[in-house]
Amino acid sequence: MKFTHKRIDIFTISAALLLAACNGSFTDHNAVTHPTYHRDVAPILSMNCVPCHRPGGGGPFPLEQYQQVRQKARTIARVVASGFMPPWPADPGYQHFLGERVLNDTQKRIIANWVQQGCPEGARSANSIKKSGFLNYQSAIGKPDLVLELTPVSLKGDRSDRFFLSKVCGSLPKDTWVRAIEFVPGIPGLVHHFNGHIINYTQARKNHESGLRVKEVVAGTYDAVFPELELFNDDGSIPERIHSAVNYLPGMSARLLPEGLGTVRLNNRFAIVGNDLHYGPAERDTLDKSRINLFFSKVPPSRAVHELMLGTNGVSKPNPPLFVPAGRNSRHFCRFRVNQDISLISVNPHMHLLGKSIRVYALKPNGDTVRIISIPQWDFRWQYLYTFTHLMRIPAGSELVVDAVFDNTANNPNNPNKPPKDIAERLEFGGASMRASDEMLQCIINWTPYRKGDEHLSLKSGL
Ligand code: HEC
Q1: Are 378 and 446 in a shared domain?
Q2: Exposure of 320 by Cβ count < 10 A (0-12 exposed, 13-18 middle, 19+ buried)?
Q3: Residue 5 and residue 43 in one domain
Q4: How many CA atoms are closer than 13 Å to the CA of 124, on its beta-carbon side?
Q5: CB-based burial of residue 173 (10 Å sphere; 0-12 exposed, 13-18 middle, 19+ buried)?
Q6: Ligand 1 contact, 108 CB (< 6 A)
Q7: By residue range, what is the domain housing residue 18?
């Protein structure tokens, strides 16, 4: 038996070599067996790691230069083999998205072999990592047209979650179309969430900037603190508000849609209000200086982008209601019927620490299923705004379905309660609690009314 196995092995290996030779793919083979940094490793890191592992990115250290990568080589080999890095919880077998960061087996082997062989640098080549041209601007997408510094927030090093309301005011020579708004965390490891709305003023109605710039909110004080921002017009009337114009969660990068799609207007007098600036536990006293980058559009919008929020606080409540008994798993659905032809742009599923898996799809009137996203192993740390590669048509009469499972057992390593406690949505702050130890089930979908040919419209775009 043993002998036969050996023969098969030898046969397989020679067949593989022969195939490689015939395909002229010896170079590839070489890349796997004898990889060098500049030729083989750097391109993989450039695409999949450097977007976060750069100054101002979400990763804890830069991986842009040979020495930096070499220093971390063993850990890199470990986290790449285990699949911990790059973090991409969405199942690429279910749906692909722009900027997908998933390593295939060959890429994993290149990294493993390279580390095992002592990290040979090799000759510099065109493949070498080019430093991002946007570094000076701390941006993932380009050179901003306007930078707004948020009022710095001082945080006590007492290891507790903190929530702030913040406001930054701005003025421009004239009303301006904005193509992208990027939140840049001052301390990426600490900022857990930022959700910002635009308030547009007309000069005649708001003459003086007043109100507080930043203030901590604790449970129950939100409704009292919010008016202190003094957002209303001078005569007490309510200015225009653009809801959730900027959103940040760990790992999320701002997105640039093709010109004309989803542009928002900034009046010459405006404010951006962070109604939920959430910091995770700080180990020592520290000062966070976060900022907002604005990218202007050359053209006025040709299409509007709408937001559909399913689940907690949204158009369809979780069913059964979101109550997860201690020691149990529970499954909840949100369903919403679409009454016109729409084109989906992006999807952002959201749960907290008890999330286990989530799948979102549409059931067409003819019974077909349109796959939207599947996250087989929910990971609280990585919550992206997943943008489709092309607009995705959902015909009128379809039902959008969110199917989510929560794990409130002791087997869930992220369970904040040991032993587990009953958990539900907790309503406070005028909406559902954002505190990570309470639960939420939400799926935010951006869409635009369908136009003929949308299926072929690529969402890929550069500045
Ligand atoms: C979406 C942003 C993002 C991307 C992309 C990313 N990382 Fe990370 N990486 C992080 C963050 C954040 C941490 C800290 C995680 C933690 O401590 O839980 C981290 C941690 C690490 C660590 C330290 C792990 C440890 O156990 O100490 C290594 C090594 C690493 N990343 C390598 C990589 C490599 C290699 C890639 C690409 C193949 C990559 N990362 C892609 C954000 C990212």
Answers
A1: yes
A2: exposed
A3: no
A4: 4
A5: exposed
A6: no
A7: 1-25
- Contact present, 373 and 456 (Cβ < 8 Å): no
- Classify residue 117 by its DSSP letter: T
Nearest CA to ligand 1 atom 18: 381
Q: What residue type is assigned to position 405 of the chain?
A: V
Mutation choice for ligand 1 from 68, 72, 79, CB with most ligand atoms inside 8 A: 79
Burial class (CB in 10 A: 0-12, 13-18, 19+), 252: buried
The CATH number of whichever domain residue 282 belongs to comes to 2.60.120
Q: How far is it, in rounded angstroms, from Cα 39 to Cα 114?
A: 11
Whole-number Å distance, alpha carbon 57 to ligand 1 midpoint, is 11
What are the residues whose beta carbons fall under 8 Å from the beta carbon of 26, sequence distance 6 or more?
20
Q: How many H helices and E strands in the chain?
A: 7, 23
The DSSP secondary-structure symbol of 203 reads G
87 lines ligand 1 (CB under 6 A): yes
Whichever domain contains 362, its CATH number is 2.60.120.230
- State which of 80, 101, 132 marks the end of a domain: 132
- Residue 71 burial class via C-beta count within 10 angstroms: exposed 0-12, middle 13-18, buried 19 and up: middle
| Whether the CB of 191 sits within 6 Å of ligand 1 | no
* SS3 at position 228: helix
Residue 303 Cβ < 6 Å to ligand 1: no
DSSP string, 365-414: TTS-EEEEEEESS--TT----EEEEEEEEE-TT-EEEEEEEEE-STT-TT
> CB neighbours of 461 closer than 8 A, spacing ≥ 6?
256, 257, 258, 259
Please give the chain's pLDDT, 463 residues, in tens.
333 333 333 333 333 333 333 333 444 568 899 999 999 999 999 889 988 888 767 788 989 899 999 999 999 999 999 999 999 999 999 999 998 999 999 999 999 999 999 999 999 877 666 655 455 567 878 889 999 999 999 999 998 889 999 999 999 999 999 999 999 988 887 888 898 999 999 877 777 777 889 999 887 677 778 888 888 888 888 888 887 889 888 777 788 888 888 888 999 999 999 988 999 889 999 999 999 999 999 888 889 888 899 998 889 999 999 999 999 999 999 999 999 999 999 999 999 889 999 999 999 999 999 999 999 999 988 888 899 999 999 999 999 999 999 999 999 999 989 999 999 876 544 444 455 567 889 999 999 999 999 999 999 864 4
What total of structural domains would you count in the chain?
4
Peptide bond into 419 cis (omega under 30): yes
Residue nearest to atom 27 of ligand 1 (CA): 75
